[in-house]
Amino acid sequence: MRLAPMSLRRRSLLQAGLGLATTIPWLGRAETLPADDAQALHLLNRLAFGPGPGDLGRLQQQGLDAWIDEQLHPERLSLPAGLAQQLDALPLSRASQRDRVNAYREAAKEVKQDPENGKSERREMLKLEALQAGEARLWRALQSPRQLEEVMVDFWFNHFNIFQGKGLDRVLVDLYEREAIRPHVLGRFRDLLGATARHPAMLFYLDNWMSVAPGFRPRHGGGQNAPSGLNENYARELMELHTLGVDGGYTQADVTELARMLTGWTFNLRSRGSNLFVFDVERHDQGDKNWLGQHVGNSGQSEGEWALDQLSRHPATARHVSYKLAQYFVADEPPPALVQRLAQSFQSSAGDIRSVLRTLFSSAEFRDPAQHGSKFKTPYRYVLSALRATGVPVRNVRPLLGALNQLGMPLYGCLTPDGYKNTEAAWLNPEAITRRVNFAAALASGRVPLARPVDAPDEPQQARQHPEWNAPPPDAQALVATLGGSLSARTRATVDAAQPALQAALVLGSPDFMRH
Amino acid sequence: MLRRDLIRTAALAGTSVWALGRHALAAVGPAADGTAAPRRLVVVFMRGAVDGLNLVVPYADGEYARYRPTIALGRPGSDGGVLDLDGHFGLHPALSPLMPWWRSGHLGFVQACGSPDTTRSHFDAQDYMESGTPGRKSTADGWMNRLLGALPGPHENAPTRGVSVGPVLPRIYAGPQPVANLASGAAAAKPTVLDRPRVGSAFDSLYAGNDAMARAYQASRQAHREVMGSLQGEDLEREMAAANNGAPLPNGFPDDAARLARLMRNDARVQLAFMAVGGWDTHANQGAATGQLANRLQPLGQGLAALAQGLGPVFDDTVVLVMSEFGRTAHQNGNGGTDHGHGNVLWALGGPVAGGRVHGHWPGLDQGALYEGRDLAVSTDFRSVITQVALQHLQMPEDRMAALLPDFREPAGLPALRLLRA
Prior knowledge:
- The structure holds two protein chains of two kinds.
- Chain A is mainly alpha-helical.
- Among the domains of chain A are: 5-72 and 315-371, no CATH class; 379-514, no CATH class.
- Helices cover 58% and strands 2% of the residues of chain A.
- Chain A has 29 helices and four strands.
- In chain A, the strands form two sheets. In chain A, strands 1-2 form a two-stranded antiparallel ribbon.
- In chain A, strand 3 and strand 4 form a beta hairpin.
- Chain A is globular, with a radius of gyration of 25 Å.
- The two termini of chain A are 24 Å apart.
- Mean pLDDT of chain A is 91; it is low at 1-31.
- Chain B is of the alpha/beta class.
- Chain B has a single domain (2-189, 252-404), classed as 3-Layer(aba) Sandwich (Alkaline Phosphatase, subunit A), CATH 3.40.720.
- Chain B contains 13 helices and twelve strands.
- In chain B, strands 1, 5, 6, 7, 8, 9, 10, 11 and 12 form a nine-stranded mixed sheet that branches. In chain B, strands 2-4-3 form a three-stranded antiparallel sheet, with no helix packed on it.
- In chain B, a hairpin with a 5-residue loop joins strand 3 and strand 4.
- In chain B, helix 2 packs parallel to helix 12 (382-393) and helix 10 packs parallel to helix 11.
- The longest helix of chain B is centred in the middle third of the chain and has 19 residues, at 212-230.
- In chain B, 55% of the residues are buried.
- Classes of the chains: A mainly alpha, B alpha/beta.
- At the A-B interface, helix 14, helix 23, helix 24, helix 27 and helix 28 of A face helix 5, strand 7, helix 7 and helix 8 of B.
């Protein structure tokens, strides 16, 4: 599969002839680049978190289609030794679900026995968990050559969102990503769905862990907070957000019946194994159910597994997932014909995500030059792409986590199960632009302490004594070269006219760099 | 309450609130010299569907405590009991900071309010409440943006301004009218790199265009100047000290509300404002007088009190509406929580509010009266409230109502809502 530069060039000429290039700034930009360069840049902007120094040249040397193919098979690309070491050295990298939950419960006990010290110890533990989750995610997103994998982690995590701030999920969020999301981001949708459904982090977040058959009495008493009936939270979001979509044709009765089928899907805090998921038959509603027009006899855990089979095969799921993929990779209002083709690909491949993406990346809609730079970056993408473009090594991710907070998109901090949106309507607002400009200016003038040791005391004097903690200011001309001459004539003129110290800030804070 | 609303005159029965609005308009129109103080509206959205039955509690309804064996609030006077409102309803005790406004007649509620669309999806329901077009997903703009476009503005050459607090712009403000958003927390008043003239002018030229990004940039620059201008003397020093510490403030909502009040008090152009506060999706262990829901309500009550106080004289010209996308099940679920429901309570606070009353028709909690046998029914369309506020309070010309709330017709046969003072 080879991109067709001729036909693309013809199309751009046609659009230029129609006068579009003068009214749409990013089209104007594409005009100034040879079509192959523009496509290469487009790939780095959509299948990766933007170009880093030298990426554009390497991609062109490899060939666009070979690069896409490689990205679709991340197992063929090894992580750089430095990154692998960094990840391996994270103290919690080998702690299992059981280890984490035990530590969490121990900390809670400590707080009861010794409130003073216990509380601060607990706080330290949770801070460490949050920091390591952030490090594991951001280091990979910035440095991994398997960029599409990282992009899909962002996509699927938001699709199956959980919130780090809720109880046990404080200590489970990065395991959830590592165990339930990451292994399946390019695999089978059914596997992904099953892995999230069985993960304690999801069972906890959407309350299914304590949804029980009405009238259930726990064997060992259980006190006032013992579960006594259904909780339909997960069953609803499973259909509305994870599979069928809100217009997928189910009713309130279907929500309740699915909740009954999923009773008993919980986790056991005293589990001997490292994974905590269990199906507890005593909590399971043994009655007959009637779900999506089908009679469902009692069959324990298989009821839920069967429901996940049905949901992953449902045409509404194929449409819903395809729409979201097309919106993420192509345009906020994705072309309906493309969504339909992706849905066909989803169904004919039995939900093979790699096949759907292959269809997507080879589509004329994705390659349409009119889409170059048509998406407004989310704060996550903005921050990552700025760091990648400068090529500055990131030892300490805290300043980046802080920037994401300020920009309204804290990592693992979306409270609601719909996850973060990736549309312009969601993220373009007055405050957003000036916040980004401020981040760009700080990064470009070398005032972001990305090299500060994570355990250094958080005091302003300390920072003044250690100028080496700050990332060095990037070179503006190198930045322009990395971005492949993708800046508009107006931006280039403004950058050229500015004093040198301000040039890199203008590049990273430019309207051009807000889009991808 | 139906029994009280029966006092209405026979002539008004079945007529629309629009007609009522016209009467009101004549009574409270601007003074002859045209210097009437501008009217303001603040909308506070509780995202996640708050449990309205534990907020304005129908404690006198026999079913209430029966449906909620472990999470019902006690009767007034009992330990952790509700604060009595009118002998039938009581307020959650965590909202006690608001009782002075109830007693002075400036805080009221509409019980069993909500959307005619019955979706139990948070996201669709919020979308409908913000677009103002329940059941129609294709509406591109939000009703507060349309309202912004329809208001004449307090003075000539001073167009009405709309502001939002928080790092993203809400759906309710989507649309062609420019809206400024202010950072949450002390960052709103922190000087930025763009305040340095050389940096500012270089970026100004990058964003000199007329596309969406350029307009957003320009709106932000202007809003920032206005905020810095509206914080005077001590205020500014305090804000700067807080900002420079860089630490997030402990009480997000109360501080943001106080800051918004200050801005509105000092800038007459800010007629519309919006804030959102999340975390109400209490599917498990929501608690009663204490617990999760109470912990969330406390800062909300403090913040609304701070807003009311901070507005000072402007409070007399301000209506604050507090709404949430739908209510929660009448029965508690298997986990001491509540699942997604339908009807909810809407709050109204401000000088023009006919407070000290629970408005609206109360459908009751009898099994037969519940929507689909499980949720409080909706008896007042939330758009009736918006209509009344737009016409009677904001004095929007009646012929613009159809553009503000397309498809909406005041239902006939219900007693007219009188949420505002005549």
